[in-house]
Amino acid sequence: MNNDLKALESFADDRFNSAGLSGIYKEGSFHGCLIEARQLINLLSSSQPENFMNPVIREKNYNSLDYKKVATICEKFKDSPDGLFGSLSSRNTKQSSRKKSMDVLKRRLRDFN
Length: 113
Fold this sequence. Notes:
Order of helices and strands: HHHHHHH
Structural class: mainly alpha
Largest sheet: none
Low-confidence stretches: 85-90
Radius of gyration: 16 Å
């Protein structure tokens, strides 16, 4: 998912610049429309997703994400394959610590709502 989003971000930037919009809209780009998706991918691939509940970290890294959306997505991906949350090397330790962290995040989001 991360590679797909990178390709989409690159395409959005290329189209924005090739259309001549960079001269007109100095403050933004199409890339800016993908911020929520980028932050969500970063959260889901993070080694400690429960840090989302820390107000300082959330404001710095995940300010475009909504609690309810994150809770819904975490619930949907609770039993996701290793490809989303883990890597092929040292799968078991990374997956279990990441899964525990994701479980903590889900519990905290449930308590928050």
